[in-house]
């Protein structure tokens, strides 16, 4: 067994280049051979609790038998078909069902195959809608510390830093604003007003800025900002790629907000984390800006695997599970467990801040250096948790949990215990 693991590691290192990884200094990669529920098993049979839902995608646990069964049926019926000029039942049904759950302003769905491309489509929709109407606007507003993906458009609207520096000159210009609080709301509105004439859209992660460090803001303040933009004809692009499908405790972040967006983006949990799929939804008004006898007004965008029947089937099966009473009870249970743990952490001398939005938990470790993704804390904490059989990926000194909804209370208590142990030992 030990040899098998070593062999896989060596073969991987010889040929694979991993994401977000400095290959020279990277710690040993772990070959995973099986997943079941909230657990992953390596080639030695060691078990890991997947406390980050494998990069925030897994909703109902790994290798879920119900999703697997639905996908197997689809795989042997229709595995793939071009989505230009053709359509299929899974895409029609998924669009119908999703639109039934989203704010009623959303009436059309455009499919892609991951989160970044869902963002590219959202930006292209907003920008071309303005172009098709003969408008001359050219500005986009986004939050500081935001993250919307790694393709060029998505990078442009994401917070700038070490990741984007090599491409800085080639990214389009964006007006970055602070996340709203009771104190700064009025000054942000004034800044926006200075650029109203040129501004096409405002793109934001609602309630939780994930990759930026699980930064959280209040629904009431975001709603106020959304309403300010709406009154000024600035289109709202709501990126629910991370927070959608129950993570915030409600089905969508939209369910916490009093204003509805013009465009919404989904991926990650959309298929329950089974296959890549992206969705961009929009209002009828946006759709109408492209709807014409003139062929040049069409949205010229598409991917080879647009609306993959297999991925759509996985999304439908995941939705069946998500809407079940069982899963809703699990979500509420995790929300309550996190609440209790946060109370426990608040008094801890090494804890700078502990916060939660639904099933998303985050804790900032007090450090002398400023909070950063490149803080050494990650390099100490990541192996510490792995040794204890817990997969967590601290963002610098920020420890967070995004558990699959099937994670048991027993496992949550174990994970919390590991965090407390780290606070004692490191
Ligand atoms: C992960 C993420 C994306 C990008 O999705 P990918 O599928 O990784 O390209 C975009 N926005 C948010 C908020 C994300 O968390």
From TrEMBL:
The modification N6-(pyridoxal phosphate)lysine is found at residue 268. The gene is bioA. Keywords: Aminotransferase, Biotin biosynthesis, Cytoplasm, Pyridoxal phosphate, S-adenosyl-L-methionine, Transferase. The lineage of its organism: Bacteria, Pseudomonadati, Bacteroidota, Flavobacteriia, Flavobacteriales. Pathway: Cofactor biosynthesis; biotin biosynthesis; 7,8-diaminononanoate from 8-amino-7-oxononanoate (SAM route): step 1/1. Belongs to the class-III pyridoxal-phosphate-dependent aminotransferase family. BioA subfamily. This is Adenosylmethionine-8-amino-7-oxononanoate aminotransferase. The record marks 20 as: Participates in the substrate recognition with KAPA and in a stacking interaction with the adenine ring of SAM. Catalyzes the transfer of the alpha-amino group from S-adenosyl-L-methionine (SAM) to 7-keto-8-aminopelargonic acid (KAPA) to form 7,8-diaminopelargonic acid (DAPA). It is the only aminotransferase known to utilize SAM as an amino donor. It comes from Myroides profundi. Its cofactor is pyridoxal 5'-phosphate.
């Amino acid at each position: 067994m030990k040899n098998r693991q070593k062999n896989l590691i060596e073969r991987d290192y010889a040929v694979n280049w991993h994401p977000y990884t400095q290959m020279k200094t990277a710690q040993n990669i772990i070959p995973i051979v099986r997943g079941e529920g909230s657990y992953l098993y390596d080639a030695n049979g060691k078990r890991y609790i997947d406390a980050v839902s494998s990069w925030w995608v897994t909703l109902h646990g790994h290798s879920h038998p119900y999703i697997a069964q639905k996908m197997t049926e689809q795989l042997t019926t229709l595995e793939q078909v071009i989505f230009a000029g053709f359509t299929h039942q899974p895409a029609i049904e998924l669009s119908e069902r999703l639109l039934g759950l989203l704010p009623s302003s959303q009436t059309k769905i455009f499919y892609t195959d991951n989160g970044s491309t869902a963002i590219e489509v959202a930006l292209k929709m907003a920008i071309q809608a303005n172009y098709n109407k003969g408008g001359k606007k050219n500005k986009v507003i986004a939050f500081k510390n935001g993250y919307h993906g790694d393709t060029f458009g998505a990078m442009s609207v994401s917070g700038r830093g070490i990741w984007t520096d090599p491409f800085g000159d080639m990214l389009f210009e964006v007006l970055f604003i602070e996340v709203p609080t009771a104190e700064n709301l009025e000054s942000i509105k004034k800044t926006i007003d200075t650029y109203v004439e040129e501004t096409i859209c405002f793109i934001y992660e609602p309630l939780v800025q994930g990759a930026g460090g699980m930064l959280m803001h209040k629904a009431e303040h975001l709603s106020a900002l959304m309403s300010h933009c709406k009154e000024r004809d600035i289109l709202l692009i709501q990126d629910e790629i991370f927070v959608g499908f129950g993570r915030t405790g409600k089905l969508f972040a939209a369910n916490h907000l009093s204003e509805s967006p013009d465009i919404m983006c989904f991926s990650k949990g959309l298929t329950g984390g089974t296959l890549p799929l992206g969705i961009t939804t929009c209002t009828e008004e946006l759709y109408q800006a492209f709807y014409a006898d003139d062929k040049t007004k069409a949205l010229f965008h598409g991917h080879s695997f647009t609306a993959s029947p297999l991925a759509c089937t996985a999304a439908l099966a995941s939705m069946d599970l998500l809407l079940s009473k069982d899963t809703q009870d699990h979500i509420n249970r995790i929300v309550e467990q996190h609440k209790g743990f946060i109370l426990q952490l608040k008094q801890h001398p090494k804890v700078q801040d502990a916060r939660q939005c639904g099933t998303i938990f985050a804790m900032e470790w007090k450090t002398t250096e400023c909070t950063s993704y490149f803080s050494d804390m990650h390099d100490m904490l990541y192996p510490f948790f792995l040794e204890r059989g817990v997969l967590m990926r601290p963002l610098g000194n920020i420890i967070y949990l995004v558990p699959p909804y099937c994670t048991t209370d027993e496992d949550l208590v174990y994970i919390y215990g590991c965090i407390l142990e780290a606070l004692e030992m490191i």
